[in-house]
Specification:
Blueprint lengths: L3 H12 L12 E4 L6 H11 L7 E4 L6 H9 L7 E6 H9 L11 E16 L7 H10 L5 E5 L5 H11 L9 E5 L2 H9 L5 E5 H8 L4 E6 L25 E8 L5 H14 L3 H9 L7 E2 H21 L5
Parallel strand pairs: 1-2, 1-3, 5-6, 5-7
Antiparallel strand pairs: 3-9, 4-7, 4-8, 4-9, 4-10
Length: 318
């Protein structure tokens, strides 16, 4: 089986090369956050699946995805070769009204290329050895424990902690959340001892767990995850009935032509069937989840509705 760049090329070739002259300009994947987080990983995986297209990665942080979203639906709505990374967190922000009055139908959903899961981590020298110890500490002295999160109050990283905290009687408003523009910044702050814990994603945590610089206390999945976090217990194993899957993928502007949209849908649908893509997805710390086109759009609409219900429980819908 090919590895590294060879695997990326094989994945793209197996999918059938995209025509570099189709649409305007070279392919670009916009990361709606700063480098180093899950959105960055998503674009890198999309890039690996599109090696023949020589896809470029560009960063457009701001508003935890809102700047990129607004740019695509207003200024770059018909760009045939511009993709934007999204995650379950993007759908939650959409559900909560953080993208203004936007609806899921304002963009064209191309592909979901993998799934991630929420996790809670502390530094390697932290006194907290499991999730129960951390949550008890937050309950007893909430002002002394800063929690790094991608996004402000109401973000998915905040909502994960709110749901866990609710099960031990913690008022979500008492938690000391420190908002960052993406998971990369959260882990940087944890490694520098600026925060005592991070609510983030397993794919991001896997990168740091390999170095032994952090301790992941729990993964928010139905079962333990393969790979670098295989020894980490789920939240459910520790008495917290919370799971948080995070699909990752790409969308396009609302006025992209049907033919250009379908070209990308077909490309990802084919790419995701190859062993080379599977290898790349695994290398980027993601887990199997493949969906495209109309099936994905229907899934997104349902997911946004479900997120809206969850957020309403904590008064987070604008």
């Amino acid at each position: 089986m090919p590895t590294g760049a060879a695997a990326a090329t094989a994945a793209s070739a197996a999918a059938g090369p995209l025509d570099n002259n189709a649409g305007a300009g070279k392919a670009v994947c916009l990361v709606p956050a700063k480098p180093g987080g899950g959105m960055d990983l998503t674009c890198k995986l999309a890039q690996a699946a599109s090696a023949s297209q020589q896809m470029q990665i560009s960063y457009l942080p701001g508003g935890v995805g809102a700047i990129a979203w607004t740019t695509i639906i207003s200024q770059r709505k018909a760009e045939a070769n511009t993709l934007v990374a999204y995650s379950g967190g993007s759908l939650l922000n959409l559900a909560e009204g953080k993208f203004g009055k936007s609806e899921a139908s304002n963009v064209r959903w191309v592909a979901a290329i993998g799934t991630d899961y929420g996790m809670i981590a502390v530094g390697e020298d932290s006194p907290y050895k499991n999730l129960r110890e951390l949550m008890d500490a937050i309950k007893n002295k909430p002002s002394q424990i800063s929690i790094g999160a991608g996004g402000t109050v109401g973000s998915q990283d905040w909502l994960k902690m709110a749901q866990i905290g609710k099960q031990v009687g913690i008022d979500s408003k008492s938690m000391r959340l420190v908002a960052f523009e993406g998971g990369g910044e959260s882990f940087t702050a944890l490694l520098a001892d600026h925060v005592q814990a991070v609510s983030g994603d397993a794919s991001e945590a896997s990168l740091h767990a390999r170095d032994g610089k952090i301790r992941v206390l729990a993964v928010l999945s139905d079962a333990r995850l393969p790979g670098p976090l295989s020894n980490v217990p789920t939240a459910r194993e520790q008495g917290f009935d919370v799971t948080w899957p995070i699909i990752r993928g790409v969308y396009m502007g609302p006025q992209v032509s049907d033919s250009d949209y379908q070209r990308w849908v077909d490309h990802f649908r084919q790419a995701m069937t190859t062993p080379a893509f599977e290898e790349q997805r695994k290398a980027h710390g993601l887990f199997p989840f493949a969906m495209t086109g109309k099936e994905l759009t229907d899934y997104i609409n349902k997911a946004v509705s479900n997120y809206r219900q969850q957020a309403k429980e904590f008064g987070m819908v604008r």
